[in-house]
Amino acid sequence: MIVIAGTFPIDGSKKDEIAAVVTTARVATLAEDGCVEYRLSFPGDDENTMMIFEEWRDAEALGAHGSGENVKAFGRAIRGFLTGKPALSIYEVSTKGPLG
After folding, report:
1. 0.85 surpassed by pTM
2. Alpha-carbon distance 18 to 74, whole Å?
3. How many CA atoms lie within 13 A of 59 on its CB side?
4. Integer Cα distance of 90 and 98 in angstroms
5. How many whole angstroms separate alpha carbon 63 and alpha carbon 33?
6. CA 6, CA 30: separation in Å to the nearest integer?
7. 74: helix, coil or strand?
8. In this predicted model, what pLDDT tens digit does every residue of 34-87 receive, in sequence order?
9. How far is 50 from 43, CA to CA, in rounded Å?
10. Which ranges in the chain belong to alpha helices (H)?
11. Of 34, 35, 79, 93, which one's alpha carbon is 20 to 30 angstroms from that of 69?
């Protein structure tokens, strides 16, 4: 399993417009083969940050996503709302289960 997590510095005054872009990206990405989870959210303590969490079946599925039209369209749509460079990390996860 592959996990992507990180943040996007955004113009928080445009959160409603950004939310529309996020909704479109989420629906399209969840329909992709190998996408387990895809969430973009706004933390309550920082209006100028958007967080991302993605979970993919494997590197092949993530690679197909990365070269697909959906991610390119998201990049074009979100570009105007960014105030800096996104900070993203990739994790290779060998096991997953409930905590506790």
Report:
1. yes
2. 11
3. 5
4. 21
5. 11
6. 18
7. helix
8. 999 999 999 999 999 999 999 999 999 999 999 999 999 999 999 999 999 999
9. 7
10. 15-30, 59-66, 69-79
11. 93
